[in-house]
């Protein structure tokens, strides 16, 4: 079923209104990472011979996250959505109990003859400061003065642009008096950029209540692989994040006094971390490679069909530093094979200068991106055994501890599901070309939560381009992607309504 032409025309005619809506959303600095307790002591000061010393404790709950939730609630209500805020608990920060931003759920339509589509988005964003290197104030949506159509602002593509896209679709149908082709249920959270705390518990608690009756799900929180080709994403790598802690003396030591006399924690740590992965990216932990599923002919064909050139990744990383010059090998390395990355060392001297210290305790941090067949538990078992065995070979008197700090399982969906077929047709209709079928190298843990808990096929339908710079300075969304993305989301609903299961 093609989208109603009146809907498509309305989107074109109201482009300025839609940009204004996104501008308002971007102006609300809903940084969930600022949800914190800060405490500090004011130094003694003298005022007219009066000496004052005091402790100040500031509860700096980010009201902007709350304000963004209120903005969404107001928008949804005006568009005919039955919406409500749901508190999902608290978390402890620096010993204090803090309310989590609410989850906003909404529904419009309950016709039993129609499919019911569940959509998800998040209304929180990453931190951003002008002095980080932004061309423009990050919380002011700024059109590129050169006329490129780029709209700069934090959250413009991750994930306020796509969320506003859904609101644009609802507004067009409401103002035109058009009936939606499907029933819509929606779930918007304000903690995605800070771990989606308690969302999995909320999904579980509402599995047989609010979420009951959903036929399939669409998430728009990822991006095209390049800047030219729309895509549908059917897989995500998971992640295991680890720390290795090496402890020795009970205090930092002077290398001139104690160097050459003690087992040094930093030396032990670097020795172990050097054995985890080769410079060519080969994971050296025994057992992990053996878990990787063989590549099927159908899978290889999907990778070979992707519109991708090595120049795309060279531009994305700022130079030719790829491990391979073969496109399929590079894509598989990014999407379907595991990788191990070293991230940093905590406790080591890093300030400018030449401090001759032997750290008494250091932590090495690394992660492994998981793919199907590599579970959090199986990989962790191999990691712990390997690190302990390698440490034992050092003959060190220091102590080692290795542990998983957080993990998310990999996810893969059936790209032949009717929801994907509908999205394929919608993409061809809006963009005039067939989409690539991709898997993401990164992780969106909530995708797996929804898929596993609700038993739904989940479609990742990106709106933004591969160069949007989510989480980076100068995050942007192109006006064309924002407007045609609105058409894509609406057209997908029409195709979904018409596609047979």
Helical stretch count? 14
Main pleated-sheet profile = 6 strands, mixed
* Straight-line N-to-C gap: 14 Å
DSSP summary, beta strand count: 22
User: What structural category do the secondary elements indicate?
Assistant: alpha+beta
Widest sheet: strand ordering: 3-6-10-7-11-21
The global form is globular
Strand content: 25-35%
Oligomer: single chain
CATH first level of the largest domain: which class?
Alpha Beta
In the predicted model, the low-confidence regions spanning at least 5 consecutive residues are 36-61
CATH superfamily of the largest domain: Zn peptidases
Binding site for Mn(2+) 1: 158, 193, 471
Site (Important for catalytic activity): 254
Organism: Kwoniella newhampshirensis
Pfam family, one: Peptidase_M20
């Amino acid at each position: 079923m093609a989208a109603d032409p009146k809907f498509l025309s309305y989107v074109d005619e109201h482009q300025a209104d839609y940009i204004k809506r996104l501008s308002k959303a971007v102006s609300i600095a809903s940084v969930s990472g600022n949800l914190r307790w800060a405490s500090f002591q004011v130094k003694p000061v003298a005022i007219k011979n009066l000496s004052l010393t005091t402790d100040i404790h500031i509860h700096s709950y980010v009201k902007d996250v709350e304000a963004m939730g209120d903005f969404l609630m107001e928008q949804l209500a005006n568009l005919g959505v039955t919406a409500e805020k749901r508190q999902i608990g608290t978390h402890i920060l620096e010993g204090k109990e803090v309310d989590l931003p609410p989850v906003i759920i909404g529904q419009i339509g309950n016709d039993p003859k129609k499919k019911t589509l569940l959509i998800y988005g998040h209304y929180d964003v990453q931190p951003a400061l002008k002095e980080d290197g932004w061309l423009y104030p990050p919380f002011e949506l700024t059109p590129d003065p050169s006329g490129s159509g780029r709209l700069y602002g934090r959250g413009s593509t991750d994930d306020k642009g796509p969320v506003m896209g859904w609101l644009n679709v609802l507004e067009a149908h409401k103002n035109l008096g058009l009936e939606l082709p499907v029933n819509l249920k929606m779930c918007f959270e304000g903690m995605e950029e800070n771990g989606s705390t308690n969302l999995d518990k909320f999904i579980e608690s509402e599995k047989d209540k609010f979420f009951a009756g959903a036929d399939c799900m669409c998430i728009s929180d990822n991006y095209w692989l390049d800047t030219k080709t729309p895509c549908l994403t059917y897989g995500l790598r998971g992640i295991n994040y680890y720390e290795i802690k090496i402890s020795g003396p009970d205090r930092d030591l002077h290398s001139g006094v104690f160097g050459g006399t003690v087992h040094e924690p930093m030396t032990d740590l670097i020795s172990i971390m050097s054995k985890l992965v080769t410079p060519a990216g080969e994971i050296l932990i025994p057992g992990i490679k053996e878990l990787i599923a063989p590549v099927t002919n159908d899978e290889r064909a999907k990778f070979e069909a992707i519109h991708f050139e090595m120049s795309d990744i060279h531009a994305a990383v700022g130079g030719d530093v790829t491990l391979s010059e073969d496109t399929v090998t590079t894509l598989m390395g990014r999407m379907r094979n595991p990788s191990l990355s070293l991230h940093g060392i905590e406790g080591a001297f890093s300030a400018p200068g030449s401090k001759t210290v032997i750290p008494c305790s250091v932590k090495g941090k690394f992660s492994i991106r998981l793919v199907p067949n590599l579970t959090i538990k199986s990989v962790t078992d191999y990691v712990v055994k390997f690190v302990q065995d390698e440490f034992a070979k050092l003959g060190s008197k220091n102590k080692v501890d290795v542990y998983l700090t957080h993990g998310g399982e990999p996810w893969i969906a059936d790209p032949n599901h009717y929801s994907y077929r509908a999205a394929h047709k919608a993409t061809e209709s809006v963009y005039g070309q067939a989409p690539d079928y991709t898997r993401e190298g990164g992780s969106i843990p909530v995708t797996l939560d929804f898929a596993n808990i609700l038993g739904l096929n989940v479609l990742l339908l990106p709106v933004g381009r591969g160069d949007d710079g989510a989480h980076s300075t100068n995050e942007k969304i192109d006006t064309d992607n924002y407007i045609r993305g609105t058409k894509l989301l609406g057209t997908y609903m029409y195709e979904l309504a018409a596609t047979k299961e």
